[in-house]
Amino acid sequence: MKTSFEKAKRKLSKPWFAAASILFAIMFIQTIGGKFEDKNIEAWSWLTQNIFTWSTS
Description:
mainly alpha; 2 helices
């Protein structure tokens, strides 16, 4: 049985978005809590760079 590329992308997007949402929530809570002190921009840059790099593949 063959699966179309578009159908596979849709199936994979659900767990990917769920995991990304959890990571964003954790990052947001840590930022509000002062985990990164004065390095908030660097921390968010690292996270978004790594998440969005995979989303464009």
